[in-house]
Amino acid sequence: MNDVVIGVDGGTTAVKAVAFDLNGQIKASHHESVPVRYGANGESEQDMALLWEAVASCLRSVAEQVRGSRIVGVGLTGQGDGVWLVDADGEPVRPAANWMDGRAADRVDDWNLDGRGRAVLDVTGTTVFGGLFPVLYEELAAAEPEAVARATSHLNCKDWIRFKLTGVRATDFTEASRTFLDVATTSGYNEPLAEKLGLSEALKLLPEIRRPAGKASPVTEEAAEATGIPAGTPVGVGMIDVAVTGMGLGRIADGDSWLILGTTGFVGTLLPSVAERRSDLSMVLATGEGTQVLEFMAPMTGTPNLDWIRSTLGLEAQSWSEIEKMARTAGPGSHGVVYLPYASPGGERAPFLDTNASASWQGMSLTSTRADILRAVYEGVVFSLAECLNALRITGPIVVSGGGFRSDLLCEILADVTAQRVLRQDAPEAGARGAAVLALVSAGAFPDVFSASSALGAALETFDPNPDNIHIYSQARVAFYDAREGARRCWRTLRKLRSSTGKAGSENAEAEETGSENAEAEETGSENVKPRKAES
User: Fold this and answer.
1) Residue 12 in 3-state DSSP?
2) Beta bridge partners of 17
3) Cα dihedral 14, 15, 19, 20 sign
4) Is the peptide bond before 397 cis (omega within 30 degrees of 0)?
5) pLDDT tens digits for 433-488?
6) pLDDT, averaged across the chain
7) What is d(CA 430, CA 536) in angstroms, rounded to the nearest whole number?
8) For the region Disordered, what residue ranges are annotated (predicted)?
9) What are the residue boundaries of the structural domains of the chain, listed by start?
10) Please, what is the Cα angle at 416 between 414 and 421, to 5 degrees?
């Protein structure tokens, strides 16, 4: 009988389950789109029951595909942050307000002015933004007190999935770092911080903290019937998605770093302790491995920018391969067109915090083409990531993952912009792979994450910078920063106009999005375009 391990990745716009053999080869996979509901006031919500149904569907499909194999364990990861509240019976009290939610923008400003933001930073290592649990919980408690009063637990996405699989209410150190965990001592939730924020009631909702590779919990009979996974199968603890990807990429030791481009961006590096932190503008997660922390920046300038321009330019009928070919015709620098990729309803959180940030183009003229506009979006997303690399003092080679980096063009632009070699895992699903690594340790199949990660590892593809493009991009980056500084003066006014216009009465003010095929499911790389790669 062949052994397999399943990694489940609860992404923002799609969930997936991937089965790996114990040599790291993908044996089966399935994904399902999950809707996100956006509101006129910055709301970004998801139906928790629908998300679970999508996960169950993925697991049923994968279990059927690997019938005859022994499932050693199930690993979990998922989107982080937001407010995910369930009652005593385990039912959601309201839709999950996810990490993109921007309705608490004014509270973020207030917290940063009155010192509460600094208090959160000092204890948890996290800068306050609209989708962070403490500030968003306060917003929801004020707006919907009856619903929030029914809650008995806050279970982030992967913790909600584990609860549905096992009945266990628990979390890990990476998720706990986003609430009230003291990341310096990792001794538990910091009660004085919750009291200082006036959120002692919220503290009561937080579940037990476990090590990411800690003891597994068994699948229940009810969950087995829903998913096709045998009852008793070990389910691991797991990590938040941005952290677990490091496990899938083999980035585990202090000093290792990696980038992710999905619905959000991510630039992070592992450090031996929070004392080694490199920027006050970053966020920090305790990993559960002694005092080790993951310092990172998570710009909200991810692949939704590409989905948006695809739709805006009327290119939905074209594949990402064809779209990438069009973008290549513009050439480096996009003929002087610069795009500010701040399209998230929640504004921006890295490498600067501005809840009013919004997207725009600069440098357009009557001679600008669709290709110029399109390529400028690719370049703007990369400029944002490169700015975070500089802030965290990360140098190459740059290891990348995520749906966006399936695009050869994005990898090439990143190499040219940073003048560094870029390495991309040639097998997809680093997040699910990392979740599977932790599950193998939790199930007792491997003694530690180093050996499990080595067993499930995959080869890397290489993209080297083109010397002819480095100078062009150094000029374009200066223009990018200058354009942003000019635009920031009107962001607050524009956000207020956008909000008031939405309230004025359009049925389109709230839209249900079925998800970013680019970010979570569809291959964004061009299978027909010869990539510029070097031998590893």
Assistant:
1) coil
2) 8, 30
3) positive
4) yes
5) 999 999 999 999 999 999 999 999 888 999 999 999 999 999 999 999 999 999 99
6) 91
7) 19
8) 498-536
9) 3-249
10) 75
What is the share, in percent, of the chain residues with pLDDT greater than 90? 83
Residue with tokens 């690997």: 66
Q: In sequence order, what DSSP letters do the residues of 87-110 get, joined into one string?
A: -TTS-BSS-EE-TT--TTHHHHHH
Looking at the predicted structure, is the pLDDT value of residue 44 above 90? yes
Measured in degrees and rounded to the nearest 5, phi and psi for residue 190 equal -95, 100
Residues 270/256, Cβ–Cβ less than 8 Å: yes
Which homologous superfamily does the CATH classification assign to the domain defined by 3-249? Answer: ATPase, nucleotide binding domain (3.30.420.40)
Name every residue whose Cβ is closer than 8 Å to that of residue 57 and which is 6 or more positions away in sequence. Answer: 30, 32
Helix axes 467-487, 370-391, angle to 10 degrees: 90
Rounded CA-CA distance 293/183 in Å is: 8
**Both structure tokens of 49:** 């029951």
Tokens of 47: 């139906």
* Whether residue 512 has pLDDT greater than 60: no
Nearest to 322 by CA among 333, 331, 310: 310
pLDDT tens-digit map of 365-390: 999 999 999 999 999 999 999 999 99
- What the block records as the tokens of 404 is 């966006």
Please spell the DSSP secondary structure of 161-205, one letter per residue. HHHHHH---EEEHHHHTTTTB-TTT--SB-HHHHHHTT-HHHHTT
Q: 3-class SS at 350?
A: coil
Which of the 8 DSSP states describes residue 219?
P
Alpha-carbon separation of residue 49 from 96, 97, 164 (angstroms) = 10, 13, 10
Residue 71's pLDDT band (boundaries 50, 70, 90)? very high
Coil/strand/helix, residue 532: coil
Place of tokens 């208090």: 119
Which residue is associated with the tokens 């003010």?
509
Retrieve residue 536's tokens. Answer: 């590893």
Contact 94/74 with Cβ under 8 angstroms? Answer: no
Indicate the range of 85-89, 160-164, 261-265, 354-358 predicted with least confidence.
261-265
Angstrom distance (rounded) from CA 92 to CA 168: 15
Q: Tell me the backbone φ, ψ of residue 472, rounded to 5 degrees.
A: -60, -45
Counting Cα atoms < 13 Å in the Cβ hemisphere of 359 gives 21
- pLDDT of 127: 87
466-470, long-range: CB < 8 A, 24+ apart: 466/412, 466/415, 466/416, 466/532, 469/332, 469/416, 470/416, 470/419
pTM metric for this prediction: 0.84
Q: Can you tell me the distance from the alpha carbon of 257 to that of 388, in angstroms, rounded to the nearest whole number?
A: 12
Asked whether the beta carbons of 73 and 439 are under 8 A apart, the reply is yes
Query: What residue has token string 């027909």?
Result: 528
